[in-house]
Amino acid sequence: MQILNGKETAEIIRKELAIQVKERKDAGRKIPHLAAILVGNDGGSVTYVNNKLKSCEEIGFESTLIRYDDSITEETLLKKIQSLNEDKSIDGFIVQLPLPAHIDEMKVTLTIDPKKDVDGFHPINVGNMMLNLPGFVPATPAGIVELMRRYNIETSGKNCVVVGRSNIVGTPLSLLLGKNTDPGNCTVTLAHSKSENIKEICLNADILVAAVGIPGFITADMVKEGAVVIDVGTTRIEDPSRERGWRLAGDVDFKEVAPKTSAITPVPGGVGPMTIASLMINTLKAMELKGK
Ligand code: GUN
Q1: Which residue owns the Cα nearest ligand 1 atom 8?
Q2: Could you tell me if residue 289 is inside a domain?
Q3: Which position among 119, 231, 251, 253 bears the catalytic label?
């Protein structure tokens, strides 16, 4: 069984990007600039955004954090997005989700200029991805595919089951893995909370991706011997043995499942760091697409 080490792979990608940034700098060209809008104080979101900015710093990107209180109005947020759309110094930006209930996330996504939408959430980018046109692929699915590529995971002709149909992970990943690309060419099943016989469906998977946000959802009896298992779950659960009082839990019962697999991602240190690495790749691409 092989551990698909996302932490290590993301570090390699950051080093590759740092070289590209240095080359740009040395040639007197502009370096990428990512902005992140963070609303409220949700512990997970604060950590994710901080890690994104830390990653920018490490690579040599410029970054800007824009923070708002939970009570911000939708109008103020939309105005800020419009100003970032127009700000020539910013190559790409993200609005960390989830947002408070009084703010319409779809309205927010639709306000972002697709050319700066490095999260790839805007319908124009979703459509571009579907049609293989230039644009941005959401960071988590892109990171998973990149991890598979770098570990030479054989995907062509394989049965891939993606559990969870979110707009951010499950749905775009199922599309990517079904494409005529490498990695790709999978026979994809997109399973979800209404799927009947979920255990039988999962047992048919050569590649099983769990993206449901339920700790330990995938148990050993659902996994075929020799399968590749990708765990997208990052739920914070209480853990009094840790100083901070919690730990991250994946969707896969790692201890029981890992011995049955040929390869598996850990949580933490699997998909999470690859998501951030992909966001960095998208930010560089944002600048290149503009011909800067
Ligand atoms: N919340 C959870 N994942 C993501 C992500 O990839 N981007 C943004 N903006 N918010 C998220």
Answers
A1: 96
A2: no
A3: 119
Judge if 185 and 243 occupy the same domain: yes
Predicted complex ipTM: 0.96
Sequence-ordered alpha helix ranges (H) in 206-270 = 254-257
CATH number of the domain that 153 lies in? 3.40.50.720
Does some domain include residue 258?
yes
Q: How far apart are the first and last CA of the chain?
A: 44
Report the pLDDT averaged over residues 216-223: 98
Structural domain contains residue 91: yes
Please give the model's pTM, rounded to 2 decimal places.
0.97
pLDDT at 244 over 90: yes
**Residue 235: in which H helix or E strand, if any?**
strand 235-238
Query: Which residue, chain included where needed, has tokens 């988590």?
Result: 140
pLDDT at position 289 is 86
How do residues 8-32 score in pLDDT, each as one tens digit? Answer: 999 999 999 999 999 999 999 999 9
Phi, psi dihedral angles at 7 (to 5 degrees): -65, -45
C-alpha span between 263 and 57 (Å, rounded): 31
Domain with 53, as residue range(s), is 30-114
Ligand 1 atom index nearest CA of 94: 9
What is the pLDDT, as a whole number, of residue 248? Answer: 96
